[in-house]
Amino acid sequence: MSYSRFAIYYVPPNGPLADFGASWLGWDVVQGCETRQPSLSGLRDITMTPRKYGFHGTLKPPFRLAADTDLDGLHNAVTQMAEACAPAQSDGLALTALGRFLALIPVGNSASIARVAATCVEALDAFRAPPGEVELERRRKGRLSGRQEALLQRWGYPYVMEEFRFHLTLTGRLPVDEIDQWMDITQAHLPPLPRPFVMDEVALVGEREDGRFELIQRYTLAG
Q1: In angstroms, rounded to a whole number, what is the distance separating the alpha carbons of residues 13 and 116?
Q2: Is the pTM of this model over 0.85?
Q3: Which helix (DSSP H) or strand (DSSP E) does residue 90 occupy?
Q4: Residue 141 — very low, low, confident or very high, per pLDDT cuts 50/70/90?
Q5: Cα-Cα-Cα-Cα dihedral of 121, 126, 130, 131, to 10°?
Q6: What is the rounded CA–CA span in Å between residue 214 and residue 207?
Q7: Is the dihedral of CA 50, 217, 166, 20 positive or negative?
Q8: Distance CA 36, CA 25 (A)
Q9: Which of 19, 27, 64, 161 can pair with 129 through a Cys bridge, CB separation 3.0 to 4.6 Å?
């Protein structure tokens, strides 16, 4: 399989939460295939944007490989990083509205999750090709702060390091007057959420020719 971009995700292990996410979004990032969504009016439309990424939490945002690097080298680097990186944990996960989209976010202290994300961003940066001017301008349309602009210049993405907020996305942007309705619907379809929430592995994923992401390999955090 040929991939245009790569990313480091948290992908929930096999179980009720992973099954829910794959079904809810209509794309199974682990199996690399479409799934049948629940029969809910409007669900396919509101999940259109996150569908291609699959159910996940981003740790290192999608990037193209830098010149003179390859997938084998990236795999080896992720392996070494994971072997040295300690697992992370929070009290649990909870459904919330982040602006106008719905997501699951950590409950309680999430500093160790931010640590894992920062490690992924920094340790693998040599494999990231610099973003082009078109991508930079697209990011800047979000009215970045001075610090976010500096992070964009340094790491190729404005919402990393202290601007990072871990989340597992469940919808695209919703009309303001539909947020509460979709909160109730989503809550009714969620499986029991993990308590505590443990992040003891990361996943290397790739963007396929059709623009959808799929799992390449999982790595245990063993530091």
Answers
A1: 17
A2: yes
A3: strand 88-90
A4: confident
A5: -30
A6: 7
A7: positive
A8: 9
A9: 64
